[in-house]
Amino acid sequence: MFSQYSKTLLVKSSKLSSPKLFTIARPLSTSQVLRARSKDATIPNTSIKVFREITALRQWRHKQMLDYRSVGLVPTMGALHEGHLSLIRMAAKENSSVVVSIYVNPTQFGVHEDLDSYPKTWEKDAEMLRNLDRELAADGGNLGKIAAIFAPTTNEMYPSGRPSQEINGKGSFITITPVGEVLEGASRPTFFRGVATVCMKLFNIVTPEKVYFGQKDVQQTVVIKRMVKDFCMDTQVVVGETRREPDGLALSSRNVYLGTRRRSVATVLSKVLRTAETAYVRGKRSRDELLGPANELARLLMMEQQQLKPEERVQFEMDYVSLADPETMQEVDEVDDTKGGILSGAVKMLPVESPQSGEDLGLANGPPVRLIDNIILKPVTK
Ligand code: AMP
69 to each of 216, 254, 260, how far by Cα in Å? Predict the structure, then answer.
């Protein structure tokens, strides 16, 4: 990621004779910043521009408009995986120029959350984007291509200084309530304030015709849609389906924290949600009928782990399992067939006990990992 937390930066400038990898120690040196600021910076061996400054990006954006080129934006925090790539593929089908933003936004992390250890994998991200760029070029079905990466510094994104991450901290914030206060918002009180604030900035900077978000973070999609509607913003929010590992675990940049032992049990949440979905498909509609069997499975899986030896088991805590209205995210007692519903949940995978010598504990030595997932219960038309 290109924030002051950046470790590496891979850029090619037309002023340089060959592509170059700069290893950036924090803080960035002046010459490195200047090179990365060059408006000719690209990901090596591609035409994908790398912008770190709003002014340069705006000049480029203006040119897109003059050339009648539509712009789609895919906001990310980097550490790219297939979920992110699937959104970029969608955007390339529907827009002439796709902008991918890569920015680890500090204000959406709580004071005690994993901002400092959040994975930053710029070189790998650049490689994935280079490969995807080639794939998109070879596939005749696309309207456009990955045109630019927007990887701003925190000084660019927060020109009056970075606001506090404290709940009562002062600053220029966007808050979307009550939808941003429940579920993830209840567990992480500053999260949606940070997300809505950074997305408002990104939308103002890039002025995209369309923005792309993953269903993986379903409450985020509801918050962003509400923000776009209530602030009369001229962009269309498109939601791409959740990409998963073959065993059902939703892809997430945070999965690298798990390590081998916890990874083998991390499907607990998707299994619990699937149980509720099965009941819905079988015609059940009440909260008890849907969440009862789901919570029972969670209890059984937890007991199964507790019966294992400490050096083998994985302890986890279910944070919540929710059945909510798809527009408000408020809990419902009964699913309305005409609206459908959203099943969602969060689980905290606790650090493994009695780690064995040489055991893969995951990035940052296996701190607690909070995983989220959801399933959309589609409306039933009779
Ligand atoms: P992040 O980098 O985690 O902030 O995610 C950037 C975007 O990718 C968000 O819109 C996420 O919802 C989306 N995303 C993350 N994981 C997945 C996934 N497994 N499938 C689809 N989209 C995803």
Answer: 29, 35, 45
